[in-house]
Design goal:
single chain, about 120 residues, mainly alpha, two-stranded antiparallel ribbon, 5 helices, elongated
């Protein structure tokens, strides 16, 4: 059995953080190009409008537009796929990916705690 760090929760946190960071940086500066047609605000059904507060829908649309207008998350994903490569559970590449993502989150000012898990092979 090989011990490694729990990457699933870290990966989820990373995706959210990259999207949040993209949204924050997107508010500070205007995009150089207009958003692509598929990045336009979606049309919401009356059911969605009834179930979610208008401010939440507005905020989520703003986060989506900022994330789609910035390549921050894609550049991090590119590093994972091109420099670290496949990451099977318990492999040195999986460990390298966990350490890379943790370092990136720390650079963003987040407190990162890695937990050990057992990966049976």
């Amino acid at each position: 059995m090989i011990k490694t760090h729990s990457a699933l929760s870290l990966l989820f946190s990373t995706c959210f953080t990259f999207i949040f960071h993209s949204a924050a940086s997107g508010q500070a500066q205007k995009p150089a190009q207009p958003p692509a047609p598929w990045a336009a605000a979606p049309q919401h059904s009356s059911r969605e409008q009834d179930n979610f507060p208008p401010q939440l829908i507005h905020d989520l649309n703003a986060i989506k537009a900022a994330a789609l207008g910035d390549d921050y998350a894609y550049s991090r994903l590119s590093h994972l796929t091109e420099n670290i490569g496949p990451r099977p559970s318990g492999s040195p590449q999986a460990q390298a990916a966990v350490e890379y993502v943790a370092a990136e989150l720390r650079q963003l000012g987040l407190e990162v705690h890695l937990e050990e898990v057992t990966v049976p092979h």
